[in-house]
Amino acid sequence: MKQYLTIDEWSIIEESFNPQTQEISESVFSIGNGYMGGRANFEEQYSGHSLQGSYMAGVYYPDKTRVGWWKNGYPEYFAKVLNSTNWIGINVEIDGVPLDLATCSVTAFRRVLDMKEGTLSRSFTAVLEDGKEVRVESLRIVSMVRQEIGAIRYSIVPVNFSGTITLTPYLDGDIKNKDSNYDEKFWNEVEKNAEPDSGYLTLKTKKLDFHVTTAMAFDILVNGEKLAIPAEAIQREKYVGATADVTVQAGDQVVIYKYAANVTSRNYGLGQLVEAAHSALHSAREAGFALLLSEQAEAWKAKWKESDISIEGDVSAQQAIRFNIFQLNQTYTGEDDRLNIGPKGFTGEKYGGSTYWDTEAYCVPFYLSTADASIARNLLIYRYKHLDKAKENARKLGFTKGALYPMVTMNGEECHNEWEITFEEIHRNGAIAYAIYNYVNYTGDKAYLGQYGLEVLVEISRFWEERVHYSADKDKYVMLGVTGPNEYENNVNNNWYTNRIASWTMEYTLEALAYLQENETSRYHELLDKLALQVNETEKWTEIIAGMYYPEDAERGIFLQQDGFLDKELIQVKDLPPEHLPLNQKWSWDRILRSCFIKQADVLQGLYFLGDRYDLETKQRNFDFYEPITVHESSLSPCIHAILACELGYKEKAYEMYLRTSRLDLDNYNNDTEDGCHTTSMAGTWMSIVHGFGGLRVQQDRLILNPSNPGHWTSYAFKIMFRGARLNISVTDKQVTVANETGIPAQITIYDKEYTVDGKSSITAEGITVTA
Ligand code: BGC
């Protein structure tokens, strides 16, 4: 853990310049708006280590797969989120010498991510090799209101000299993905134009024909006055810019406002791109930077009104949860149902910006509770639209029926190519089914089942039916050759979680069928026809549900992660020399696979999902056995452990796990934040407060709360939307207060006692020792 950022309630602050942490900061300070975003690269040139990154949601490249041995069923490509035109660049020269923080002495450096208002700022004093000193301040936004717009205010004051400051704002499309399989560039130039105060660049991807037009315009002011500074337009391949020489006296302030618009062929016809970019650009420039800033602050105010969590008495925990919520809100806004949430959002290339089971297992609950139900519904419909591709995928692998959703996807096709994950980590199908349950259970929108949900459930159940088989030896249904959520085991037999989620899916599918038969009879019959669902199929599911094999150890009273788990040498993580961690950077894969060490919640993931089916003692025995051998080397791990630890009353463990999930990127726990932030796991952090400390569940149309206080906090409060009502739930040591901010009443159970919270009123559950 390397804590170098200043603790603050609403901001992430870095107070000195350190080239060693530059790439970590580039990830942490990233900004975006759901439509586009990028890493916190410097505007001016920087010759030190840096991962330049600017991304447009949904614009990707099918990079030809690179594998040692081709195996039937491998996907043709691995989808890469595309590093797109760098629109933030403003190079600066001081009397002909580049301003480059890698080559000058930097003092008074401060970088701030203001999460309340959605801005990224930076200030520093730099002394160049020739002794000239400048004071620089920059302020940047990616607009939450005008999704295509980014804007920068960049100011320079020559402190101890008079001379010439040369500014070169530019657009650079000559960029490469760091993770390109064959070291190729993915973009071709289509057209460009550069003028003395503006320019544009259209690029298209070498495959799939995505077009992106980026247009920029800028204004230069000296001491507050806009000057008609003669600038010279520059053009070269995939690059446009303009260079302006500004003559300055010591103490003058030179400010450049740079506006950029990014539009893509996902939203416009090819012939409309340039005009669309210019129209967005001109209206932003006309509005001016100050108005863009105030719009931004208003937009974030509204987001915080719906999703803030406040924590009193622990600023580090407060900062962390706001950071997680901020990143989630700037990664996915739910307005475009073709988009999803990549594990790194707009903060890096790793994991290709593609969709993983992370969305259903971790992100759906966050959006369900903090936004209109249509947003989570869009995430579900995304998978509905991919159903045909998921069926195709199952056929490719030799299944005669059913659907296997991809482990990693952009457009519904599988684009992950490690056999042990692509072919074996099939539990993702279960998470997709579970998200349907979660959505219907939380929102009460049962109509979703008839509209979209049932088709997905039936095809997933069909897949499970064919994937299990009857073992005469065990007289049970078994599932061989899988990888569970714990990716530190591959090709195992009877992974408890996978068997459990498979039979649960069949059970829920039968329940959904029964619901439709009774309540939407004509739609039910329509769907039976559409799906050609046979009675012998549903009978088979019932048989599998009753006869599924679940490995367990009766003596210890635990479920076994897989057959033979107890043959392993059982060593606890606390007994490992610290220098062996993280295992994935220190140990060979062979050693990891043979060991008992667990990457992330596996059995415990099942006990969290299906929490209402297991008693506390069962959860406790399994937690006590598995947590001590879990290394939490997936960012998705600590949050599930935090939630279960809360339920079990393990307050210190819950708090430890909370800090680990919430400060994962801020403190670079897993030593990999320079690749990008762990955006999808941030939803898990939110879950660890709301489902963990808040104890929120929804059962039979009622909101259930069982709050606890980790003991390090004076109080905490979170907001949730539930069936149209927005509730502010605050928890102190002695009481739980629920304030209903809307006019719609809500039914709530707090510690087994039932309440109705009328519109615009609040209730308090008192006489409680929350910390007991
Ligand atoms: C985890 C997976 C997860 C992926 C993307 C991996 O490290 O083991 O469960 O889907 O990261 O977040």
TrEMBL record:
Which residues belong to any copy of the Glycoside hydrolase family 65 C-terminal domain?
Answer: 696-757
Glycoside hydrolase family 65 N-terminal domain residues are: 14-266
**Which residues constitute the catalytic centre?**
E487 (proton donor)
Cross-referenced SUPFAM superfamilies? Galactose mutarotase-like, Six-hairpin glycosidases
Q: Which GO terms describe its biological process?
A: carbohydrate metabolic process
User: What Gene Ontology terms describe what this protein does at the molecular function level?
Assistant: carbohydrate binding; glycosyltransferase activity; hydrolase activity, hydrolyzing O-glycosyl compounds
Pfam families in the cross-refs = Glyco_hydro_65C, Glyco_hydro_65m, Glyco_hydro_65N
- What family classification does the UniProt entry report for this protein? Belongs to the glycosyl hydrolase 65 family.
Designated name of the protein = Maltose phosphorylase
Instruction: Please report the organism this UniProt entry assigns to the protein.
Output: Paenibacillus albidus
